[in-house]
Write a structure and sequence with these properties.
By secondary structure, this protein is of the alpha/beta class. Among the domains are: 151 residues, Chitobiase, domain 2, CATH 3.30.379.10; 206 residues, Alpha-Beta Barrel (TIM Barrel). Helices cover 36% and strands 17% of the residues. The protein is built from 18 helices and 22 strands. The strands form five sheets. The chain has an eight-stranded parallel barrel with strand order 11-12-17-18-19-20-21-22, surrounded by six helices. It has a seven-stranded mixed sheet with strand order 2-10-7-8-6-4-5, covered by helices on one side. Strand 20, helix 12 and strand 21 form a beta-alpha-beta unit. Helix 2 runs parallel beside helix 3. The protein is elongated, with a radius of gyration of 26 Å. The N terminus and C terminus are likely disordered. The protein binds acetamide and zinc ion.
């Protein structure tokens, strides 16, 4: 028998069945744009197909590999096998041996036999995998041809954040995880969780059960932009088990969850639970409307400090983040000015108004400093909104600049680290265009994609030393007018793509080139079923003459 004659048709058949799948070509011009893409024009591409193995030899890379296998399954219809032994060819190997100063730096090396993704850390390898994912031009039952060459990449900023407000509206743990998946796609590594506010305390604190028993439910909600209220009880909170699960889910995606306990203002839901913590003693309701409440923690009451310590004891148990956000914004001093306890505290601390700060602003600094010092004993650092500069704070406090850029600029000049989230560029609760958009926050101008993209976080006049104090950029999604998760997605996307480039990409900007990349990214949004603003990509209908 002629063996080769028998064998050959089988091989040919196998080859034919493989090549039956169409192959699409990957493009490394992703969002955010990698620093350097160097293609080997004459070399054969790597063909990613159902036989490709993902090689991961330690537990961190195995988690990365599992996530990557899931991502590419959505885009190709196949789920590659994960192995700890490299085959001779047709594999994608994950490593974190790159070294260097930038913890998020990675390289991707592609030839006909293999792709090697090497990161400075497992997080960096994950960003390399996100680039391979986003290089795929959309979903289908296809193989993927990755052009031969190398991608060398590292981000501009170490802190790449997004805020999600789950107080004004409650979003299920699964929705929070979807948010985390969405930010992971954009190489974002900080999830600032605004989890308590006047309209709902949504974090279980076991030693203070009334915070969620009473403070997580309001009796109704203001209707749109009227002065009318519905009378539908509205509530929800995250149990500690749910929080731990979300923190782990984020950590697997190399995202640190930074909880915000906004104090001493934005505390009316806590006051509804424990009225003795307010200057007037209440009664207080979990707030049914939006805005800035005058009802804040009484800074002259010692039990307030004990309350905050108890909250922070559990917060630090739940959240391993080095930084805890302690708010500090929008704390009206109306009640403090009239409250005998607050005034006695001002006197006993010897606080006096001067040209820089009022005595009440200094009293706020006293509260913030108490919490910062308490957290420092637990090895944690704090972030606060830019108002906290008013009463003076230690330079170890990171300043989050939201009322514009001035707070962050002043903070960096004074030696604080600063995170830039100026509302004019980074408030994703603002509408995306003047016309035809859903109801949205109305205290700022429209914030279209191009304006987000145009943001430059470091002023020209900064010295390198001052520039190094700008540690990152963040966009905030305040959810007064965002009652459901689909709407949250719409407000985020595609603006989060522009945010990602501000956070990650170095070098000159080119909005037209960015538009091509972001339009390609929408193919991934489509594959993931995301709700995003498509009007940016609609060509003007031609007027028939
Ligand atoms: C803020 O928008 N109040 C930080
Ligand atoms: Zn008081």
């Amino acid at each position: 028998m002629n063996f080769s004659k028998l064998f050959f048709p089988v091989l040919a058949l196998a080859a034919a069945s493989c090549s039956d799948r169409p192959a699409v070509e990957a493009d490394y011009q992703t969002v955010p744009l990698p620093e350097n893409i160097s293609l080997s024009a004459d070399a054969a591409a790597f063909k990613f197909n159902p036989k490709t193995r993902i090689v991961a030899t330690d537990s961190a890379q195995t988690v990365n590999a599992g996530l990557f296998a899931g991502y590419v399954n959505t885009l190709t219809g196949f789920s590659p096998e994960i192995t700890d032994k490299a085959p001779v060819n047709n594999y994608i190997r994950l490593k974190s041996t790159l070294g260097g100063d930038n913890a998020d730096a990675y390289t991707i090396t592609v030839n006909a036999d293999s792709i090697v993704v090497d990161g400075a850390t497992p997080a960096a390898t994950f960003y390399g995998l996100q680039t391979l994912r986003k290089a795929i031009p959309g979903a289908g039952k296809h193989d993927v041809l990755y052009p031969a060459g190398t991608v060398t990449d590292s981000p501009r900023f170490a802190y790449r954040g997004t805020l999600f407000d789950t107080s004004r509206h409650y979003f299920s743990p699964d929705s929070v995880k979807m948010f985390i998946d969405m930010i992971a796609l954009h190489n974002i590594n900080r999830f600032h969780w605004h989890i308590t506010d006047d309209q709902g305390w949504r974090l279980e604190i076991k030693g203070l059960p009334e915070l969620t028993e009473k403070g997580s439910v309001r009796t109704g909600t203001i209707i749109d932009k009227t002065e009318e209220y519905d009378s539908i009880p509205y509530g929800g909170f995250y149990t500690q088990d749910e929080v731990r699960d979300i923190v782990k889910y984020a950590a697997d995606r190399h995202i640190t969850v930074i909880p915000e306990i906004d104090l001493p203002g934005h505390m009316q839901a806590a006051l509804a639970s424990y009225p003795e913590l307010g200057c007037t003693g209440g009664p207080y309701e979990v707030w049914r409307r939006w805005g800035v409440s005058d009802n804040v923690l009484c800074a002259g009451n010692d039990s307030v400090y004990t309350f905050l310590d108890k909250v922070m004891d559990e917060v630090t148990e739940l959240f391993p983040s080095e930084y805890i956000h302690i708010g500090g914004d929008e704390c009206p001093k109306k009640h403090w000015e009239e409250c005998p306890k607050c005034q006695a505290k001002i006197k006993s601390l010897g606080l006096k108004s001067d040209s820089h700060s009022t005595a009440e602003q200094k009293l706020q600094s006293h509260v913030m400093t108490h919490v910062a010092e308490y957290l420092a004993k637990k090895g944690r650092k704090v972030i606060g909104w830019d108002e906290i500069l008013e009463g003076g704070v230690d330079t170890s406090t990171v300043i989050m600049s939201w009322r514009g850029t001035q707070g962050g600029i002043a903070a960096a000049q004074a030696g604080h680290d600063a995170i830039m989230t100026p509302n004019q560029y980074m408030y994703f609760d603002f509408r995306q265009a003047d016309e035809g958009e859903p109801i949205a926050a109305n205290w700022g101008d429209a914030l279209p994609l191009e304006k987000v993209y145009s943001y430059e976080p470091i002023p020209d006049e900064f010295t390198p030393e001052q520039a190094a104090h700008i540690i990152g950029v963040q966009a905030n999604l305040w959810c007064e007018y965002i009652p459901n998760y689909r709407q949250a997605e719409y407000m985020e996307m595609p603006r989060i793509g522009a945010l990602a480039e501000v956070q990650w990409t170095k070098g000159p900007k080119d909005f037209d080139a960015f538009m091509k990349r972001i339009e390609r990214l929408t193919k991934i949004y489509d594959a993931e079923g995301y709700n995003y603003r498509k009007a940016y990509f609609e060509t003007q209908a031609e007027t028939a003459e």
